[in-house]
Amino acid sequence: MAQPARDLGPVPRYEVKRTTAAITVDGKLDDAAWKSAATIVFQFPWDQQTGAKQKTLARLLWDSDYLYIGYDCEDADVVAFYQERDDPTYKDDAVELFINPDPTQNFYYGMEMNARATLYDYFYAWPQLLIARVNFEGVKLATHIRGTLNQTGDKDDGWSLEVAIPWKNFSELGKTLPPTPGSVWRANLNRWDGTEPNRRLSQWSNSGLSDPNPHNPARFGELVFQ
Predict the structure, then answer these.
(1) pTM
(2) Positive or negative, the Cα torsion across 185, 117, 65, 25?
(3) Hey, CA dihedral for 74, 79, 81, 87, is it positive or negative?
(4) Over the stretch 149-164, which tens digit does the pLDDT of each residue have?
């Protein structure tokens, strides 16, 4: 059970711009469209963790077909072993998207994606029930590793990930898909970095929990579609 949240003030807001330029989902984040998207810088809420504080940046865009998210992760040692859909990718070097199209309630979708572009997706009827049998359809997902995967001892530069999610996957909670300009969804973006016992969880919006735990929909940030 999640711990009570600390008083951290208002949650962050992010304006998700609509793009008319094509995005090739190859994990490299070098399409011109990404230049128009504002940058999210992850924070490190838990000082008790011993993993390195390595920077993570994220951006979001949308068009009539997809919601796009790009992550760029500094990482001196990229490690990811899980390769099958719905494996526990959060145990690897991984990024997460928690997203709720209906802010009047606390249910949300989760996507946990490791540096091998392996996806674990689910629906969380928070806090009672996580439904792991949910499988998003038509997702485009790719990573680009700047270094050598699973080779500890050398020095990597990092890795990046792009994901394009068809709007139909949000149909249980999304009242209008794609969202109309001005619509507000709730979301959080997270990163699990490093291997046990030296791991680090970083986030867009601080979950406010005393122990490293990203699951607190009351502290999800706001996505405002433009």
Answers:
(1) 0.96
(2) positive
(3) negative
(4) 999 889 999 999 999 9
